[in-house]
Amino acid sequence: MSINISNKSDVFKFALALYDYLIQKGQTKEANDLSQLVDSCYTNDEYALKAHLEAFRLIQERVQILPLQYQRALEEAITYILQEIDSRKDKDTAQGRCTADKTKECSENTAKEQEFQEIELKLKVHNPQLGERILEDPLIRELSRNTRPQVKEYETTYYDTCGHQLINHQVCYRIRSSAGEYTATIKGLGSSQSGLSIRREWNRKLSENIPTLEPFKDLAIGQELGNFVRDEELLPIFVTRFKRTALDLTCQDGSHIELALDVGEIEAESKREPICELELELKSGQIENVLKLGEVLSEVYRLKPEEQSKYQRGMILAGIMISCR
Q1: How far is CA 302 from each of CA 55, 246, 279, 298, 310, rounded to the nearest angstrom?
Q2: Global pTM value
Q3: CA torsion sign, 135 to 239 to 171 to 74?
Q4: Residue 108 has pLDDT above 50, yes or no
Q5: How many C-beta atoms lie closer than 10 Å to residue 297's C-beta?
Q6: From CA 172, how far away is CA 269, in angstroms rounded?
Q7: What is the mean pLDDT of residues 225-253?
Q8: From CA 157, how far away is CA 239, in angstroms rounded?
Q9: Whole-angstrom Cα distance, residue 278 to residue 257?
Q10: Residue 180 CB contacts under 8 Å (≥ 6 apart), including other chains
Q11: What pLDDT, on a 0 to 100 scale, did the predictor assign at position 90?
């Protein structure tokens, strides 16, 4: 594989390729740190290069072994960014603009954006009865401090334009209703490996169950999608209906994980597919705790990773995506 860095687009594409490589090699912490840095400025081109520079230098420090083509691309990307930054500094000085250090601002943006990152492990459950047994597992009861699970009913509708503008730009939009409340969510498709997915996520409360990007206009992602969608109508693609039984778990190091059993179905027109899965979502702390707990439960209850999200399965059911299984 040849990776050439000759412009900004190459830099951004390489960051995605490097992220996927790290995930595939099990270096999830490094991939997560890379993702947080490069996403901190999202579409703001003025800051994005510095965020990528910081991310690439971080990978150089932490990842000692990389394939030769990745090492060369990393060096080329850093060299390109430094040259571009120097060029912009000269332009800023000539125009009399402030050229204060913007990397700090990117780091501050990263801290603000962390709440929008979803990290979860999905496991297939053979039947609802097995799921109930897992919720009563002694280890789970210990980590949940014997608290009672929270049970909620959810109905979620996923939307896109007639021309599939959202899926074409690697995001999904949904409205989830529960107990008379409506929450709109934009999610990046992210990356998934052995059931572990890391995705960007933004949530906004709605006063009524009507799809709109308006509540996200204060975010870069909302502004960008607004430019793509414009006046196109957001149309329902498929619906999920399920009961979620959830427990909050606290690990020894203080990490917090939400364990949730989802049982229900996906509906796309007249087609239906059952939902029966366990989700381990990292709320705070170290991702290693999610992986270790998932490994224990998989071994005891013979569970397998669920490689596809509800969104992907719904899109396949609706005939918009093709299954890679």
Answers
A1: 38, 21, 15, 5, 21
A2: 0.65
A3: positive
A4: no
A5: 21
A6: 19
A7: 94
A8: 4
A9: 12
A10: none
A11: 59
